[in-house]
Amino acid sequence: MNTPFLGLRTCIYRVTDIGSATEWYSQFLGIRPYFEQPFYVGFEVGGYELGLQPEESANSSRGENIETYWGVEDIHAVFAQLLAAGATTHEQPTEVGGGIWVATAKDPWGNIVGIIYNPHFRGGL
Predict the structure, then answer these.
(1) What distance in Å separates the CA atoms of residue 103 and residue 95, rounded to the nearest whole number?
(2) Phi, psi (deg, nearest 5) at residue 49
(3) What is the pTM of this model?
(4) Between 20 and 30 A from 106 (CA), which of 7, 18, 83, 89?
(5) Calpha distance 7→59 (Å, rounded)
(6) What is the pLDDT of residues 104-120, one digit of tens each?
(7) Torsion angle defined by CA atoms of residues 65, 33, 42 and 39, in that order, rounded to the nearest 10 degrees
(8) CA distance 37 to 103
(9) Are 72 and 65 in contact (CB under 8 A)?
(10) Structural domain of residue 75, as residue ranges?
(11) What distance in Å separates the CA atoms of residue 125 and residue 122, rounded to the nearest whole number?
(12) Domain assignment of residue 2, yes or no
């Protein structure tokens, strides 16, 4: 099959305070961004980009129709780390079949951060 898509590259979260969001994600990820400007902050995470973009005000009508899942080895530990860092539960870790586990939390700006443990899919590894 010939497809124009090369694969996912970037997941962008919109935040009302890019400075505090940069610090929050730096602390949680344990890395500093590779690109940091007032209009965009980019972290390289496992060969993909987690981007932060400022928005003028909190968007109370933010949809929940797009979810991005970051691969993890221990979903329960990472979910607990998200909550300890100040995220809130959106969906508890749940096995969805075949040994695959998913969970979602909301960062302090209301963005859904998905995590997945999938023993059958290693991405670009």
Answers:
(1) 9
(2) -115, 130
(3) 0.83
(4) 7
(5) 29
(6) 999 999 999 999 999 99
(7) 110
(8) 30
(9) no
(10) 67-125
(11) 6
(12) no
Burial class (CB in 10 A: 0-12, 13-18, 19+), 69: middle
**How are beta strands 10-15 and 48-54 bridged, if at all?**
parallel
Three-state SS letters, 28-97: HHCCCCCEEECCEEEEEECCEEEEEEECCCCCCCCCCCCCCEEECCCHHHHHHHHHHCCCEEEEEEEEEE
Res 88 pLDDT > 70 = yes
Which CATH number does the domain housing residue 115 bear? Answer: 3.10.180.10
Asked which of 34, 57, 80 is the last residue of a domain, the reply is 57
How does residue 5 score in pLDDT terms, banded at 50, 70 and 90? confident
Residues in the chain: 125
Is residue 1 a part of any domain in this protein? Answer: no
The per-residue pLDDT for range 14-29, each reduced to its tens digit, is: 999 999 999 999 999 9
Give the residue from 114, 10, 13, 25 showing the smallest Cα distance to 59: 13
